[in-house]
């Protein structure tokens, strides 16, 4: 994948114009396989950032950003199968607007945060809730808190795509409809403007003492309607579609990971 570079928007626009004029580099969308559009060093995700999600899981929404990492090894494309790992029985979805960084920066002031945004994409922050909440070893919660790494970082758990919509094409990132549909039934429906903490606040926090690089991704949190709120968890054979109007859609089939151990067979 080509790395997202700094200060090349004019060159990119010129390249697109040349491709259209000559026909070179233009392909039918149906003939392409979308891989996750990630070429950065970090994937950061904000925890509870919508009132409806806070209410359904009975957790107070944070007044300040609280970010965790998802590893690049967890990436999956917008049409790639997602794995229902045998080490978890509680697979859940989280549709989120993801911000893609275009200009590097550290200690970025909130009032200048949008200057560092290259564009936006869709993320399904797949979550393995029993691992996230340490159900096999609940005593760990009191001492160490939730297991964000294991609960959010398994293979295919970071669905991203199908492309990056540049910031100039998104006049208002808070006016986008967001939805998740499972097997034809709508489970999540909200507007990005419902988020509590703003994009500049998240960027400012993410960059405190840590340089954000071009291609880094910051997910802004999910609205209400997740399985953890009381609905049936996701299982092999399910079809999950996360869509954000004006940005794109992630459409994935859930398959069993035959290589995983059977729950209860490992210590």
Q: Could you name the CATH homologous superfamily?
A: Fumarylacetoacetase-like, C-terminal domain
Please give the domain count: 1
End-to-end distance: 39 Å
* Portion in helices: 10-25%
> Within the largest sheet, what's the order of strands?
2-1-12-6-7-9-3
Strand tally is: 14
The proportion of residues in beta strands is: 25-35%
Low-confidence stretches: 260-267
CATH class, named Alpha Beta
Strand pairing plus helix content: what structural class? alpha+beta
Overall shape: globular
Gross CATH architecture:
Alpha-Beta Complex
Looking at how many chains there are and whether they match, the oligomeric state comes to single chain
SSE succession: HEHEEEEEEEHHHEEEHEEE
What can be said about the biggest beta sheet? 7 strands, mixed
Helical region count? 6
Per CATH, what is the topology?
A: Fumarylacetoacetate hydrolase, domain 2
**What is the average of the pLDDT values?**
89
Can you walk through the features of this model?
- With 267 residues, the chain is α+β, with helices and mostly antiparallel strands.
- The protein has one domain: Fumarylacetoacetate hydrolase, domain 2 (Alpha-Beta Complex).
- It is built from six helices and 14 strands.
- The chain has helices spanning 9-22, 51-56, 129-132, 139-144, 148-152, 199-206, and strands at residues 43-46, 67-69, 75-76, 82-84, 91-92, 95-101, 117-125, 127-128, 158-166, 177-182, 185-191, 217-219, 239-244, 248-256.
- Strands 2-1-12-6-7-9-3 form a seven-stranded mixed beta sheet. A five-stranded mixed beta sheet has the order 4-14-13-10-11, with no helix packed on it.
- It starts with 8 loop residues before the first helix and ends in an 11-residue tail after the last strand.
- Mean pLDDT is 89; it is low at 260-267.
């Amino acid at each position: 994948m080509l790395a997202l570079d700094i200060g090349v928007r004019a060159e990119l626009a010129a390249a697109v114009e040349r491709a259209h004029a000559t026909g070179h580099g233009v392909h039918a969308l149906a003939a392409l396989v979308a891989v996750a559009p990630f070429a950065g060093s970090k994937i950061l995700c904000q925890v509870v950032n919508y009132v409806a999600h806070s209410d359904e899981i009975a957790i107070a929404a944070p007044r300040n950003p609280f970010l965790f990492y998802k590893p690049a090894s967890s990436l999956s494309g917008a049409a790639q199968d997602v794995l229902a790992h045998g080490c978890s029985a509680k697979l859940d979805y989280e549709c989120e607007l993801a911000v893609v960084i275009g200009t590097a920066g550290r200690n970025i002031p909130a009032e200048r945060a949008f200057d560092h945004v290259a564009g936006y994409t869709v993320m399904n922050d797949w979550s393995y809730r029993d691992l996230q909440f340490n159900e096999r070893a609940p005593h760990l919660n009191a001492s160490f808190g939730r297991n964000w790494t294991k609960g959010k970082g398994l293979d295919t758990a970071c669905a991203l795509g199908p492309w990056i919509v540049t910031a100039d094409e998104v006049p208002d990132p808070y006016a986008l409809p967001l939805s998740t549909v499972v097997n034809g039934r709508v489970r999540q429906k909200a507007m990005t403007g419902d988020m509590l903490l703003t994009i500049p606040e998240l960027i400012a926090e993410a960059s405190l003492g840590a340089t954000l690089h071009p291609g880094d991704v910051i997910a802004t949190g999910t609205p209400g309607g997740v399985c953890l709120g009381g609905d049936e968890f996701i299982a092999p054979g399910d079809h999950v579609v996360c869509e954000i109007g004006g940005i794109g859609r992630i459409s994935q089939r859930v398959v069993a990971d035959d290589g995983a151990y059977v729950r209860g067979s490992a210590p």
